[in-house]
């Protein structure tokens, strides 16, 4: 399996139509694809534990269940001790696969008779209940089986393999409906689906393995819905500096931040920008925050601003506004002023919340970059956080359209839309879930813009740098990692020709 294919992410509908079209073009039957899917899952099982390990295969009524029936037969032939618990097969392929299992003289349990004790004697549990395309909440025997798998895994330490998509996980949104199998390993067929790489998917999928089923050369001619951000973004965009470089040609970033009691946010954004190599950083802050910011980072040029931003805007190449800005009238005036500025603007945190309340039109000459978390995205879209999380890809697209902006939607599986291209970041760590992490990201974005990184690559590159820095900062443990620890890792990452973690 070429690693390149796993960087191309598709919707469920794209996979459904593309799989069938590719198979027909290659004169491969759906039954043959099912056989190949089962063989890929068997290989994953063999790599986890050799025969005669005990395997319980749970089969649903459709083609995903058919994969499970074929897998059971192949595993039995390879010397595994196999037991099957299944719903009544409904699709023709599932019926044929079940018949082939029973023709070997093997029996199966009815899914509605499955109990906790059936898991106790197992080494491996295979979830072949439901595949991709689930668009409603689980119920009945399938929901009960999912709950049994999850509870039994905690009690008996079974290794759980999901076929294509963990049952209960929406393959387009990454949301459980309302629960999903908590797998250790997912073998996904033909292409990686959007719902496996964003939303809450990381809590359910475990390691994701792609099995292209021998149709990759034809299937992957269609454009993906998302591309995975990789180290190539840094390698292509961050070239060595010219020997005669000076701070004047490395950009001047203005950070408008630091309301009363929130000087730390301005410091974190400023430090991140400096570590990413911007030439100069000015900070426009509230009078109460000036001293605290200045003493924490001497390289920052700190200015008190009451209401007139024009002198500072006139000198800036790019503006970041929002970290620790607050929601005071002082903050509101600054947001209104920046909304009229004709240069590139990074909108974050409190500035996004204020922007959501305004009726503004982006100046034609300006390029806006927005870095909302789901709550901020909800306010911008006049909806709820749960609605944003229910379909992060749709929220991303709507934000881009509504504000004519480049968008980075934070969260596990960060999504980016820049121009016509959409991206997902599969790097990162729970260590990033700490106060100030978003302020670091805004500083990274501003620094990249100021240094002339290509407009449509700023946010993908920023997402990657932030995520990988978070991973590196958590080497001694995710819990307790600080936003300032992330900053310390940026210097090496923005010099990729010297050292880079791929």
UniProtKB/TrEMBL annotation:
UniProt protein name: Bifunctional NAD(P)H-hydrate repair enzyme
Signal sequence residues: none
Catalytic activity: (6S)-NADHX + ADP = AMP + phosphate + NADH + H(+); (6R)-NADPHX = (6S)-NADPHX; (6R)-NADHX = (6S)-NADHX; (6S)-NADPHX + ADP = AMP + phosphate + NADPH + H(+)
Keywords: ATP-binding, Isomerase, Lyase, Metal-binding, Multifunctional enzyme, NAD, NADP, Nucleotide-binding, Potassium
UniProt-listed Enzyme Commission number(s): 4.2.1.136, 5.1.99.6
Binding site for K(+): 64, 127, 167
Family designation: Belongs to the NnrE/AIBP family.
Binding residue positions for (6S)-NADPHX: 63-67, 131-137, 164, 265, 324, 373, 439
Binding site for AMP: 410-414, 438
GO molecular function: ADP-dependent NAD(P)H-hydrate dehydratase activity; ATP binding; metal ion binding; NAD(P)HX epimerase activity
Record text on subunit structure and interactions: Homotetramer.
NAD is among the record's keywords: yes
Cofactor: K(+); Mg(2+)
Co-factor remark: Binds 1 potassium ion per subunit.
Pfam families: Carb_kinase, YjeF_N
UniProt xrefs under CDD domains: YXKO-related (cd01171)
Domain YjeF C-terminal: 229-497
Top-level taxon in the UniProt lineage: Bacteria
Domain called YjeF N-terminal: residue spans: 15-221
InterPro entries per UniProt: Carbohydrate_kinase_pred_CS, CARKD, Nnr, Ribokinase-like, YjeF_N_dom, YjeF_N_dom_sf
């Amino acid at each position: 399996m070429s690693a390149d294919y796993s960087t191309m992410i598709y919707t469920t509908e794209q996979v459904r139509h593309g799989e069938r079209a590719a198979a027909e073009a290659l004169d491969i039957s759906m039954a043959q694809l099912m056989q190949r899917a089962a063989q890929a899952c068997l290989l994953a099982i063999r790599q986890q534990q050799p025969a005669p390990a005990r395997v319980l295969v749970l089969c649903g009524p459709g083609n995903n269940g058919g994969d499970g029936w074929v897998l059971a037969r192949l595993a039995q032939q390879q010397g595994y001790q196999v037991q099957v618990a299944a719903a009544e097969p409904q699709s023709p392929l599932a019926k044929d696969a079940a018949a082939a299992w029973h023709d070997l003289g093997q029996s199966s349990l009815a899914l509605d008779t499955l109990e906790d004790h059936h898991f106790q004697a197992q080494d491996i549990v295979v979830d072949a209940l439901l595949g991709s395309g689930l668009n409603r909440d689980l119920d009945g025997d399938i929901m009960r089986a999912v709950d049994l798998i999850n509870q039994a895994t905690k009690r008996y330490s079974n290794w759980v393999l999901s076929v294509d998509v963990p049952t209960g996980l929406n393959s387009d949104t990454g949301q459980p409906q309302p629960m999903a199998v908590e797998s250790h390993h997912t073998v996904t067929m033909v292409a990686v689906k959007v719902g496996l790489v964003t939303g809450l998917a990381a809590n359910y999928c475990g390691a994701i393995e792609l099995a292209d089923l021998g149709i990759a050369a034809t299937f992957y001619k269609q454009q993906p819905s998302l591309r995975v951000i990789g180290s190539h973004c840094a390698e292509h965009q961050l070239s060595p500096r010219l020997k005669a470089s000076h701070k004047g040609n490395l950009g001047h970033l203005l950070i408008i931040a630091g309301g009363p009691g929130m000087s730390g946010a301005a410091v974190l954004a400023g430090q991140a920008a400096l570590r990413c190599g911007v030439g100069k950083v000015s900070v426009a802050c509230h009078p109460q925050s000036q001293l605290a910011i200045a003493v924490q980072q001497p390289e920052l040029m700190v200015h008190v601003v009451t209401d007139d931003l024009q002198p500072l805007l006139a000198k800036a190449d790019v503006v970041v506004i929002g970290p620790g800005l607050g929601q005071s009238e002082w903050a509101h005036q600054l947001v209104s002023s920046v909304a009229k500025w004709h240069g590139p603007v990074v909108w974050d945190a409190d500035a996004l919340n204020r922007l959501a309340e305004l009726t503004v039109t982006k100046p034609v000459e300006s390029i806006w970059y927005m870095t909302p978390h789901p709550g901020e995205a909800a306010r911008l879209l006049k909806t709820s956080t749960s609605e944003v999380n229910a379909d992060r890809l749709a929220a991303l697209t709507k934000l881009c359209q509504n504000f004519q902006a480049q968008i980075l939607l934070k969260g596990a599986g960060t999504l980016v839309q820049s121009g016509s291209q959409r991206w997902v970041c599969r790097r990162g760590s729970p260590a990033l879930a700490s106060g100030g992490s978003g302020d670091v990201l805004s500083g990274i974005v501003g620094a990249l813009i100021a240094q002339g990184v290509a407009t449509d690559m700023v946010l993908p590159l920023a997402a990657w740098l932030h995520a990988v820095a978070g991973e590196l900062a958590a080497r001694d443990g995710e819990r307790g990692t600080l936003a300032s620890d992330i900053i310390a890792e940026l210097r090496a990452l923005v010099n990729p020709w010297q050292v880079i973690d791929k």
